[in-house]
Amino acid sequence: MISTERTRTIPARQSRVWDVLADFDRLAVWADNADHTCWLDEPADDGRMVGRARRVQAGRVVLVETITVWEPPDRLAYDLGGLPPVVKSAVNEWRLDADPAGGDRTIVTLATHVDCGPRPPQQLVARLVGNRLAKASDVMLAGLADHLAATHTSDSKGTPT
Predict the structure, then answer these.
(1) Cβ neighbour number for residue 72 with a 10 Å cutoff
(2) Rounded-to-integer distance, Cα 67 and Cα 52, Å
(3) Does residue 158 carry a pLDDT above 70?
(4) Tens digits of per-residue pLDDT, 97-153?
(5) What does the alpha-carbon distance between residue 148 and residue 12 come to, in Å, rounded to a whole number?
């Protein structure tokens, strides 16, 4: 398995950052590399999020992202389905940590884990796919920061407060 991480410090409280990520079906509102997103299922009666899935349209690529970890306000992970068959599994994992320096800042880490198999050619493909997904992570982190800056005097859904 190949893993890449991207980290960015965002000038917003951890709860505000989580609120944006937790609005899982609205990724296209703030991520420039997502053209359209929507839920593929109905919410569970008990409010459980693990197992829920969204559809992400990015150009001609369609992904199905299924939540595997939901730990508010610290951690969110989801499987990436719809990648080429050579990719056995791919997971994005968001981690949010309050800035130890204090203030209303959050250290946001987006880790991507890609498994294409154990053989050297498979590891090479995993590294290439991981690098491509890391570039997408950079775009998502920048979009998240820009969205939170633009809604600084708004709630997480962009509604003026």
Answers:
(1) 14
(2) 6
(3) no
(4) 999 888 899 999 999 999 999 999 999 999 999 999 999 999 999 999 999 999 875
(5) 7
Q: What is the pTM of this model?
A: 0.90
Q: Specify burial of residue 119 (Cβ count, 10 A radius: 0-12, 13-18, 19+).
A: exposed
Q: If you search the block for the tokens 């600084």, which residue do you land on? A: 152
Strands 53-58 and 2-10: unpaired
d(CA 4, CA 79): 15
Q: What are residue 129's phi and psi, to 5 degrees?
A: -65, -40
Q: Which amino acid is at 82?
A: G
Question: Would you state the pLDDT for residue 57?
Answer: 96
For residues 39 and 54, the answer to whether their CB atoms sit within 8 Å is yes
Task: Give the closest residue to 148 by CA, choosing from 9, 6, 17.
Answer: 17
Nearest to 80 by CA among 50, 107, 55, 109: 55
